[in-house]
Amino acid sequence: GLLTGDPLVLRKKRIGERTGTLRHITRNTKSSVVCSMTNDLRTENRCTQWPESTLTHVSHRYQVYAEPDVPVALNKYVVYFHSYDAESKRISGLAERELTRAEEEGPEALIAEQRFYLDEFWHNSDIRIEEHPMLQQSLRFNLFHVLQATGRNGRTNIGAKGLTGEGYEGHYFWDTEIYALPFYTYTTPFIARRLLQYRYNTLPQARERARELRHRGALYPWRTINGEEASAYFPAGTAQYHINADIVFAMRKYVEATGDLVFLHRQGAEMLFEVARFWLDLGCYVEGKGFCINMVTGPNEYTVLVSNNLFTNLMVQDNLFYAARVARRMRSNHPDAFAAVAQKIGLSDREIDDWEQAASRLYVPYDPGRGLYPQDDSFFDKDFWDFKNTEPYKYPLLLQYHPLSIYRYQVCKQPDVVLALLLQGWRFSMEEKRHNFDYYDALNTGDSSLSSCVQSIVAAEVGYIERAYEYFMKTARMDLDDINGNVKDGIHAANMAGCWMSLVFGFGGMRDYHGVISFNPRLPSRWRRLAFNVRVHDSLISVDLTHHGVTYTLLEGGVRRIVHETEEIELQPSEPVFRTVDLPGRAAQKAAARAAAREPLPEVARHGQ
Ligand code: IFM
Q: Which residues' Cβ are closer than 6 Å to ligand 1?
């Protein structure tokens, strides 16, 4: 049967001898959606059937008088169409034609097509943890769900709960760019491109939103489906301007990992330049500090509307340098492509200089006395949350306390500085990472499902393998074991994709600073073997880790350079390379230093408070 709920208004219902079609429009956004089905019952048994329909559903009921050894087979075909696919009036016809086509092809052909698609997916994405069936089950469950959740037509994206529940009303967040895109970029890049394409297709709405808030450039919505801002509570919504930086950051990683300059020149650059414009308009120069960004909310939603959120500032700096570099490279190496974008958005040379200037003067809050990076300008002025007297049932805090009772404390819902340590890792020394991780790990409630995977990766990097393991187990089993007790509202898609990151970036130790792929693996003592593949440009690299060492094999593509710990390796087709594994931490630090040396960026001024 086909069911419908309140947000849908019925426009058309048709029920045939074996078929049924419903067309609705969504109450608020007026999108049309069609669902058509047909049943193909095959049996030699005597049977009766009758259609049923109400205002909200259509179905066919069968009664089979089954004899022993007389088989019964029911093939059911269902198709969905949306007004994104074609004009609203045409989609019912399209859906019915697609059904006929599916039935003509038959189940075997459809299953074969599906199998081919999934074989390819697993070939690129599977991760093996030897002799650990429970973990293996969770990895595959998580990655399969991420795939199921992902819109792949450039017009849809990944809902925070996938399509499995009504939590967050189906909205898309930065979860896509920071948690899911790494997985796709390094395994199935054509899907990463589609997800970025979605952001390009909603650039007009982002421009419109920037105008609405009296800014230049483009401001992407914190939560959305159709590209318009849907946040109800701006302090933990629109004020998370870092969404803009996250999108550009993910795009940059995609372009560096794939070399897809066509995307960059035709679509990416336009987004990038509009976002850079936005930053210049949002920030301002402050005497004694530099370029500051005030009144924002960083990833930690338990602290809102602050000045100079470290994560935001570092990501903005990254965006601005990148924007200036791409603009200059395009101008000299691809002048036609550059002229097309520059003309379309009225870009001047002066703006490019301004981006670079703001980036080099971007304010990075730092407390030299304590060797700590404050989450923002006022974070260290706040009192500590009284963890000792907070009973377990009081978590997540946001469901038990008024927001204002939370905002005045040093307390984290999810990684903020710690996420900066991961995404902007090449800027920090290992000592800084460990010291700052220690500080912020103690403040983290883990109230957000986006927490444990990032904590796990950074814990692994700084050498806390046991802690990393604990966080990883929570990540891996979150939905299968309903650890947060809220899976009834839907799965946690970001965490599921984060599970891949915990293994590949965490225990696999992969980093991609400035397009250089490096590995500093560290295997938890309880595992015998961890193996995964990553795709970089046209190469598919297998990474196979045991307690003896790690083997890198080029499975597809031409010669590829990678860095193992501190050593540069040139992988040749069919010539596996084996290396022993160094102590955690030491090698990662050297790799970060090498990455920074390879493409030095202007010195980032750190300011004492
Ligand atoms: O995007 C996240 C946010 O960071 C924390 N609250 C839940 C959102 C959706 O997953």
A: 160, 168, 173-175, 299, 301, 448, 450, 494
Taking CA atoms only, the protein residue closest to ligand 1 atom 4 is 299
pTM > 0.90: yes or no: yes
Average pLDDT over the chain, rounded to an integer: 94
Of 172, 72, 528, 605, residue with least CA distance to 368: 605
The rounded percent of the chain whose pLDDT value lies above 70 is 95
Q: Residue 53 — pLDDT band, cuts 50, 70, 90?
A: confident
Query: What pLDDT, in 10s, does the model give residues 123-155?
Result: 999 999 998 999 999 999 999 999 999 999 999
CA diameter of the chain: 88
The closest of 409, 423, 205, 208 to 314, measured between CA atoms, is: 423
- The C-alpha angle 540, 257, 605, rounded to 5 degrees, equals 140
For residues 334 and 328, what is the distance between their CA atoms, to the nearest angstrom?
10
State yes or no: pLDDT of 4 exceeds 70: no
Q: How much is the pLDDT for 489?
A: 95
Ligand 1 centroid, distance to 450 Cα (angstroms): 7
Q: Is 556 a catalytic residue?
A: no
Distance from the Cα of residue 105 to its chain's centroid = 35
Distance of CA 79 to the CA centre of its chain: 27
Residue 221 C-alpha to ligand 1 middle, in angstroms?
13
Nearest CA to ligand 1 atom 7: 448
Q: Which amino acid is at 179?
A: Y
Lowest mean pLDDT among 30-44, 81-95, 502-516, 589-603: 589-603
Q: Could you tell me the distance, in angstroms and rounded to a whole number, from the CA of residue 412 to the centre of ligand 1?
A: 13
If you measure from the C-alpha of residue 175 to the centroid of ligand 1, how many angstroms do you get, rounded to a whole number?
A: 7
Catalytic residue from among 301, 351, 356, 461 = 301
Q: Which atom of ligand 1 is nearest to the CA of 223?
A: 1
Q: Which residues contact 236 (CB under 8 A, 6 or more apart)?
A: 297, 301, 304, 403
